[in-house]
Amino acid sequence: MRGVPLADLPVRLGIPPAEVPAVLGQVEQGRVTRIGDRLVASAEVARLRNRVLDTLAAHHRAEPLAHGMSREAVRHALGDAAMADHVLAGLVASGEVVLDGATARLAGHVVTLDVAAQALAGALGNALRGAGFEGRTAGELAESRDRQAVEAMLEYLVRDGVVARVGRDRFLDADALDGVIQQVADILRDRGEVGPADLRDKLGLTRKFSIPLLEWMDGQGYTVRAGDVRRGGPRLTTGAKKP
After folding, report:
1. Whole-prediction pTM
2. Residue 203: pLDDT band by 50, 70, 90 thresholds?
3. Which of 11, 45, 95, 198 makes the best surface tag, with the fewest CB within 10 Å?
């Protein structure tokens, strides 16, 4: 799979250096593909191309709610990062694969929810709306449900924009989080600073819930920490919406 390094051609092929250009000429004839500083048989590249397509298809079947497969996972599946990147680039150029940031997916892949998934999405949405500004952890939401299914659905709902992740493992209904952002903006407009006590007074939140929310707002640029309080960040001053 790794091919032949260009510098090793004379030794590996048993040819004098003067004949190397003739070998490289085969690249243009389609029998050999140049990938970085290596030459790889084009038939091997075609085999790996099909392997990537099969790998992505299997991933979509195994994780139907996932947007795609991480590019790093594709590299690991092929065992060669440069080769994987070359093959992915070719598949993108042919319109068979779509790269979205660090994620790869088949061009025809669309996340669809079956009846059971729709029911789970509705149940989680209702639970988070009922939780209000406190939200719920994945563990709390999975108390009477399959944990893996809950985590996969939460990831889907976050991508869909109806649920927001706060911290590593707390989730809020997106409208509830909008309410927190608006309350913080109002407090900052009136007082110029906001702290956990303000969220306790305005939203009834203890420090267990207010601190992660304020830290999330720091990370998103809505607030900037200044000692024990927060002041307005660039996203509040520009009126930007949450991601």
Report:
1. 0.67
2. very high
3. 95
